[in-house]
Specification:
4 helices, alpha+beta
Length: about 180
């Protein structure tokens, strides 16, 4: 029964790390990533549809994203959706698709982006600690109901803390890597 608590805590904390990685992918580094347009949806015949479902998305260089719709009549719709999404660049239309030309990041933008990454990492740490709290409460309940001994409870709390420490260390490692990517010119 303690193993299921540990497994559940590990799984939840792993989800926290995966969510952080996904959030980090939306941050701009020195090289623009096509993931910056992942959340954009367009009106495709009355249905909100992800941009990636109606167009091919690629980057031609470090600062340019090229979006080529499979149906040419969607170009205006894509431009409108990008303007509404407010991703920091105005789309331009070349007749065959939409081009997003991002200016190189300034040092201030890089610092701001790194600060945003720290905020994201801190939220992930809080989520991991909440998982720890949940697991510890389950352990306390088992001890209170006399299903485990006090010694087993102490060892279980230590195990949960170890899992939490490993998760926080992983979050710190991912943050350091992302900050290095962002601040590298």
């Amino acid at each position: 029964m303690l193993e299921s608590i540990f497994d559940s805590a590990k799984a939840e904390m792993q989800k926290t790390i995966e969510a952080l990685k996904h959030e980090f992918s939306s941050l701009r580094t020195g090289r623009v990533s096509v993931k910056i347009v992942d959340h954009i949806r367009i009106d495709y015949y009355g249905t909100p549809t992800p941009l990636s479902a109606v167009a091919s998305i690629g980057s031609s260089d470090a600062n340019t994203i090229v979006i080529t719709p499979w149906e040419k009549n969607l170009i205006k719709e894509i431009e409108k959706a990008i303007q509404v999404a407010n991703i920091g660049v105005n789309p331009s239309n070349n007749g065959a698709g939409v081009i997003l030309a991002f200016p190189p990041m300034t040092q201030d933008q890089r610092k701001e982006s790194a600060k945003h990454a720290k905020t994201m990492a801190e939220k992930s740490k809080v989520a991991a600690r909440n998982v720890r709290q949940e697991a510890n409460n389950k352990i306390k309940k088992l001890e209170k109901e006399k299903q485990i001994t006090e010694d087993e409870s102490k060892k279980a709390h230590d195990t949960v803390q170890k899992i939490t420490d490993e998760t926080v260390a992983s979050i710190e490692k991912h943050l350091a890597e992302k900050e290095n990517d962002i601040l590298k010119i």
